[in-house]
Write a structure and sequence with these properties.
This protein is mostly helical. It has one domain (2-135). It is built from six helices and no strands. Helix 2 (10-33) packs antiparallel against helix 3, helix 3 runs antiparallel to helix 4 and helix 4 (76-96) runs antiparallel to helix 6 (108-135). The chain is flat. The chain crosses the membrane at residues 12-33, 45-62, 78-102, 114-131. Keywords: Membrane, Transmembrane, Transmembrane helix.
């Protein structure tokens, strides 16, 4: 729902509502009929990552089509979406191959290192977005507003 709150056009608002609804319906169907609770499941995480990547691309498309600031990186929303995009894209394949990759105990350290680096990068970028949001409260564009859920 954060994508809906930072959307400047109806395309991202509609896409975020449709994506969330589709995700919840698909997740419910999957958990009720297909889930097996004895291992980490890649399907919900992969679906969530694809949804976040698609919403991020729509946000970037909106900003290219109708820019709200002279430099896109002046917007805190850009940094938030960039963090989500990098984390989702980076962990997408890790989640897909998690069951296969973690069968060999020697791969566990590599898995944890890659996931840890991506999480640290995500947290640093989100931290920068929060700092940018509240650094100059008087710098406003039509989309620059508090990032809320």
């Amino acid at each position: 729902m954060i994508y809906r709150s930072i959307a400047s056009t109806s395309l991202l608002r509609k896409a975020s509502i449709f994506g969330l609804s589709t995700y919840l319906i698909a997740l419910t169907i999957y958990l009720v009929f297909y889930a097996d609770g004895d291992y980490y499941d890649k399907i919900p995480s992969s679906f969530q990552n694809v949804l976040l990547i698609a919403l991020s691309i729509i946000f970037f498309y909106e900003q290219i089509k109708k820019p709200e600031a002279f430099f896109i990186y002046d917007l805190p929303e850009f940094w938030y979406v960039t963090g989500v995009f990098l984390h989702s894209a980076g962990t997408f394949f890790i989640y897909i191959f998690a069951k296969f990759w973690l069968q060999d105990v020697t791969n566990e350290a590599d898995y944890n290192n890659i996931h840890g680096i991506l999480t640290i990068l995500y947290n640093v970028i989100i931290g920068f977005a929060v700092w940018k949001q509240y650094k100059d409260p008087f710098y406003k564009t039509s989309t620059s507003k508090p990032i809320t859920a």
